Recover the amino acids of this structure.
C-alpha cells in the first residue's frame, strides 16, 4: 500500500487557492473517509446503569414540570460522539423518559420514527394515531415517522420508559422537525395487538389482497414476547441463539424502516458471542444479570441497564444466573443498512 500525500506536501499558495474556491484535495483525507478493511469509529462501547440514572430522572420530575420539558427525558449520550450531540450510536438516539401521575406529554408528530420500551410503573399510555396503547413493563410501542402521538398517565406511580429514535440520521440529513397539534381523540378501542393482530399467523380476512398498511400494529406486549421466547427455547439447540425479531404482521418485514428490534433470551448460565456485523446497536436489559464484553470493554449488567454497541464490534454476553433466563431487548440499524445494500455479517471474529 502506498503512502498517500499529505496536506503539508502541497505548497501553501496552492492550498489557499483551493480553499478560496471551496475545493479540497481528496488524497490527504482518503484514508480517513475510506480506511482499509474496517471503518474508523468514534462510537465508544458505553454502559449506562439504570440505578445511576433513576434518581436523577426522578429528580428531574421534581425540578422540571412537564410544561417546561414537553418530554422529560435524560438522553444516553455516547462520549465518543460528543455528549452534546445526544446520540448513543451514529444512527440511534436513546432517552429515558419520566411521566408522573396526571401528566400529559402533548400531541405532536415528527419526521424521525420513535419507539417506547417500558421500564417501570403502571398506568401510562401512548395515544398513537387515535389508538390508545397501554404501557405495561416490557411493552414495545411504535410511533412511526409522521404519526401523531401523545403520552398520558392515569396511574399512581412514576412511569419510566426508554425511547429509541432514528433521530441522529434524520437530523444529519437535515430533515428532522416536529409539528405540534391539538389533543388527540381516542378511538375507544383496545389497541390492535388485542384485536386485529392478536396472534401471528392470523390476520383479519379483509386485509387479504388489499394494499398493505405500513404500520398495522403499534404495540408488542412483552407478555407475548417473553412467552414466545420460552417456547422458542424449547425447540432451539443449545448452540443456537434464542432470539425473536419484531416484525410487521402483514408483511413479515421489520416493523420500522430504519431501526430494527429483537428480543434475546440467554438461558441460565449461557455465554453467547453475537455475530459481528456492520450494524450499530443498543442493548437494554429487560430481566436478569450478567457480564458483557464489547470489543475491549467489559461490564457487569443488571435489570434495566443499557449499552451501546459500535458497528463491527465483537460482543460477548453471559447470563450469570444458573437458574433464571436473562432477557435482552436490542435496537439496531440493520433494516436501514439492508435497504441501502451494505449490511454485512462476519462469521470469523
Ligand atoms: O416522546 O415524542 O425521547 O419527541 C425525544 C423526542 C421522546 C416523544 C424523545 C420525542 C419524544
Amino acid at each position: 500500500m502506498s503512502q498517500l500525500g499529505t496536506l503539508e506536501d502541497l505548497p501553501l499558495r496552492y492550498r489557499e487557492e483551493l480553499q478560496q474556491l471551496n475545493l479540497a484535495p481528496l488524497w490527504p483525507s482518503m484514508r480517513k473517509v475510506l480506511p482499509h478493511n474496517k471503518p474508523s469509529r468514534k462510537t465508544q462501547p458505553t454502559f449506562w446503569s439504570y440505578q445511576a440514572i433513576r434518581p436523577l430522572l426522578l429528580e428531574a420530575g421534581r425540578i422540571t414540570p412537564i410544561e417546561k420539558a414537553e418530554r422529560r427525558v435524560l438522553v444516553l449520550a455516547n462520549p465518543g460522539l460528543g455528549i452534546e450531540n445526544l446520540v448513543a450510536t451514529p444512527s440511534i438516539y436513546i432517552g429515558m423518559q419520566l411521566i408522573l401521575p396526571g401528566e400529559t406529554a402533548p400531541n405532536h408528530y415528527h419526521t424521525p420514527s420513535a419507539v417506547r420500551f417500558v421500564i417501570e410503573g403502571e398506568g401510562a399510555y401512548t395515544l398513537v394515531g387515535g389508538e390508545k396503547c397501554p404501557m405495561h413493563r416490557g411493552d414495545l410501542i411504535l410511533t412511526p415517522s409522521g404519526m401523531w402521538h401523545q403520552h398520558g398517565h392515569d396511574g399512581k406511580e412514576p412511569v419510566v420508559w426508554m425511547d429509541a429514535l432514528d433521530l441522529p440520521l434524520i437530523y444529519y440529513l437535515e430533515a428532522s422537525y416536529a409539528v405540534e397539534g391539538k389533543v388527540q381523540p381516542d378511538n375507544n378501542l383496545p389497541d390492535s395487538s388485542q384485536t386485529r393482530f392478536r396472534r401471528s399467523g392470523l390476520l383479519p380476512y379483509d386485509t387479504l389482497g388489499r394494499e398493505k398498511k405500513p404500520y398495522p400494529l403499534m404495540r408488542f406486549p412483552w407478555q407475548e414476547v417473553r412467552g414466545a421466547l420460552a417456547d422458542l427455547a424449547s425447540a432451539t439447540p443449545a448452540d443456537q441463539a434464542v432470539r425473536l425479531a419484531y416484525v410487521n404482521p402483514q408483511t413479515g418485514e421489520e416493523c420500522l424502516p430504519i431501526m430494527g428490534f429483537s428480543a434475546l433470551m440467554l438461558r441460565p448460565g449461557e455465554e453467547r458471542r453475537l455475530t459481528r456485523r456492520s450494524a450499530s446497536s443498543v442493548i437494554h436489559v429487560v430481566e436478569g444479570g450478567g457480564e458483557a464484553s464489547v470489543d475491549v470493554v467489559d461490564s457487569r449488567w443488571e435489570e434495566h441497564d443499557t449499552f451501546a454497541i459500535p458497528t463491527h464490534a465483537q460482543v460477548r454476553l453471559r447470563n450469570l444466573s444458573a437458574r433464571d433466563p436473562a432477557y435482552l431487548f436490542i435496537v439496531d440499524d440493520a433494516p436501514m443498512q439492508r435497504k441501502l445494500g451494505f449490511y454485512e455479517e462476519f462469521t470469523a471474529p
About this structure: The longest strand covers residues 93-99. The domain at 46-346 is CATH 2.60.120.10 (Jelly Rolls). Residues 196 and 202 are 9 Å apart (CA to CA). The pocket of 2,5-dihydroxybenzoic acid is lined by residues 71, 73, 95, 97, 105, 110, 114, 149, 163, 165 (CB under 6 Å).
